[in-house]
Amino acid sequence: MADQRAGRGMDHETKQAGRVRLHPPAPTGFDPFDATPQELARHGLPRRPDAASEGELAALWEQKAARYRHFEHLQPVVLDPSPLPPAAPPALGPDPIDSAGYSLTSRHAPFTSLFLTWTVPDLQFDPDPFGINSLHIFAGLGFLDVHTQLTVTAAQTVTCSLWAQGIGTIGLAVRPGDVVSASLCLNANAAGTAAYFFSNETTARTMSFSVDTGFPPAITVDAGVTRDGVLRPGQSLARFGTVYFDEISAYDAAGHQSPLSGEAITMADGSTVLATPSALTDYAFKVVSAR
């Protein structure tokens, strides 16, 4: 598995550490529109969909390629490697005891990709016997998960990091107020090959990874906020105000599917509502703290 030195000395070749493939970032001046499929893959960038058979996805690819072509593409760095979890039964979606957001189960074929952006909130401490509150912003494509992990102490010290399933904590810095984008893709091959593309829209930096997960095809997509209350009973949820999710879209063999057409999940502790999701458009929603 990759470590803090991952990404260094990769000048012209893709390096591999365990299941994780670390790609040299696209150089300054790299034009994704002129790149061959091999060049895109070499830099860990999503393939360009066929405009004739995948019109919606191709249009989205072109939009994002135009947006990120002048960003700074960072060497992939893993700060805290994380092993893949053991095989488990298919997930049923986020649990309302610790999560709020939206979850959609496929009615057609497995989902192959999920795209979204979200804001990183500032946190306010809520009295807690552990002396610390936590909040995770999450997005999931089947068993693939990405999180913005936040904590706040009684001294109002906020920590913030990005984490990806099968990778660990990654070295793309984020902080409250930033807008973060993620692209998750999962191949239906036996290796369960996944590709992650992250962007801090505020600092104009990107980082990407690919990993052989062994995961089955994705039948659910979801996004929202969650807490660690199940793992740490009695822990309070940080006061987070509002988290906005934008440009959210999922794709299966039938084309675009809106995660907001799925189940809306309200986080509640017994009869006490903690956080509520609310759709804004077919491509955007917000989660509002009840505190």
From TrEMBL:
Gene3D superfamilies associated with the record: Peptidase G1
Composition-biased stretches (Basic and acidic residues): 1-16
Region (Disordered): 1-51
Top-rank taxon, per record: Bacteria
A Pfam entry, by short name: Peptidase_A4
Protein name as catalogued: G1 family endopeptidase
